[in-house]
Amino acid sequence: MKVSIGQDSHRINYGNPDKDLMLGGIKFEENFSVVANSDGDVVLHAITNAVSGITCKNILGKISDDMCKNGIVDSEEYLKEALKYLKEKIVHISISIECKVPKISPKIEEMRKNIARILNINESSVGITATSGEGLTEFGKGNGISVFVCMTTE
Hints:
alpha+beta; 4 helices; globular
């Protein structure tokens, strides 16, 4: 059994978003996006980092930068690239999202279903929680979105 932690965060781009806000591969209808070279899906980035914690093969960095330069900006593709190196079976994934905006709760079930599809695991093995952080951090103040992921494999 192996356990890993993945983390990622992105600053929110208010005002004139140049892309859709994507979280867990799901489009959020908001008037803002995040600052990123890719689609900026901070949830899928954190999951990708958790997979890299198991495989010891970093995807977010040079590999994803090269993919971006070749026009691949869909974060699901980065996660799929990371999964190519995973020999273990994913048992469970727990995702914790901190942000003031957007409201995460209405989209949790849709996100769980999509993440389970990408990881090829049962939906019951994908847990998602969300908090505003009570405004104590930059994320809770509405300046960004932070995600921590704990992944268990066997």
